[in-house]
Amino acid sequence: MGAFAARRLAALIITMMVVSMLIFAAFEWTPGQVASKMLGPFATPEQVELLTEQMGLNRPAPVRYIEWVGNVLRGDLGYSTYFKTDVNNIIWDRLGNTLLLASIAFAIIVPCSIIFGVAAGMREGSKLDRSISVLSIVTTSVPEFASGVFLATIFVIILGWLPGASTLESGGDWSIASQLVLPVAVMVLFDLGYVVRMVRAAMVDVMMKPYIRTAVLKGLSFRKVVLGHALRNAMVVSLTVILLQINYLIAGVVVVETIFAYPGFGHMILESALSKDTATVEAATLIIVLIVVVTQIAGDLGYMWLNPRIRFK
């Protein structure tokens, strides 16, 4: 286990180094592009050249890359030209807001997907299985913006039960909890169906294994067969799928946060990209990649825990 963790840690460091090079090359390899993006399309060549010199962007690219990496390692993520403050002052608050939204949605998605997926997989071809499968496909097929508008129309405009915006501002007519209901509902509806189908597929595959038939022939109850043998093995495959949803819930909810004006990480990236805020987009991209890699490592460790045979390889 220790050797495996060391290899994964080394892979994490190498991945972040390669990604940092790619990010720097994409945004800052050509100095004039950085200055022109910040000044806008109507800037004169003289203005672009002056800003390039003031920011030190006319220095060699390797020198600027090493300086940028050093600043990042020291916790200096740069200055946001859109939010008019240090990136540190905005990015962590926005990430915290998205983590709040993601944690609530994840806490709903995981148990519900396991319950519905296992229930459908145990009775393949039954009415329950077909109903859960159809409902999962329908909810996953509906885009987030469509389900968001649909839910807002019902619960905001028609019924008036919930607020139409989730600005996380307290003290008004709506509590913070009520502002989180619709964004979480959209995320759960969009993501739950996919995870349910993956858990169901894993459960169907496990239920057809010889050791399951042997357990049944030995006279074990159906409940013991499912909980004692089938579920653990089905979760070996499902765990990776479930953990990968963390990436979507943190970095892939741009549409949800935009619809409900939620001050989250995805909305921040969209605003920064549209305003050509290079420093903020670079820092956000690094954080996203770090989350993805850490999630993969967590999935591998969970896979080893669920499958003892891998621990000795």
UniProtKB/TrEMBL annotation:
As for membrane topology, the entry says: Multi-pass membrane protein
Please state every residue range assigned to the domain named ABC transmembrane type-1: 95-299
Primary localization: membrane
Write down the InterPro entries for this protein, in alphabetical order: BPD_transp_1_N, MetI-like, MetI-like_sf
The record's annotation in PROSITE patterns points to:
ABC_TM1
Q: Which SUPFAM superfamilies match?
A: MetI-like (SSF161098)
The molecule here is called: ABC transporter permease
Q: Which species is listed as the source?
A: Dongia soli
